[in-house]
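Sorry, I am new here, but would you mind making up a protein's amino acid sequence and the tokens describing how it folds?
***
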Amino acid sequence: MAKATEKKSPQAPAKKAAAPRSKAKATPSLSIDKVSEQVIEKLQALNAEPQLQADIAWCLGSYRYDKNPVGLIQNCTIALSVLKTVKAKNAKAVPAKLITDLEKALKQA
């Protein structure tokens, strides 16, 4: 004797409810140390303010050691004004994204 096969219902199996997605940030959190590395690279490429480059590099090492951003913030504020003056002289020398990233990082710090 053959077993009777069960008929499957024409309905599709129930789908799992979609997990709520976390909202992605519009811009990732800018850390002061990553932005200051970019500032040092740009200042070196422009051959501008060698003393400021050295100060930022020293403060960056200090910040990585003790997580105290005071000196790094002061020097990055000076670098921001330097980059803005260089951009005023030559608009293509400094990308606007670098300036806005630096401003955002200084506000977050």
Observations:
- Residues 32-108 form one domain.
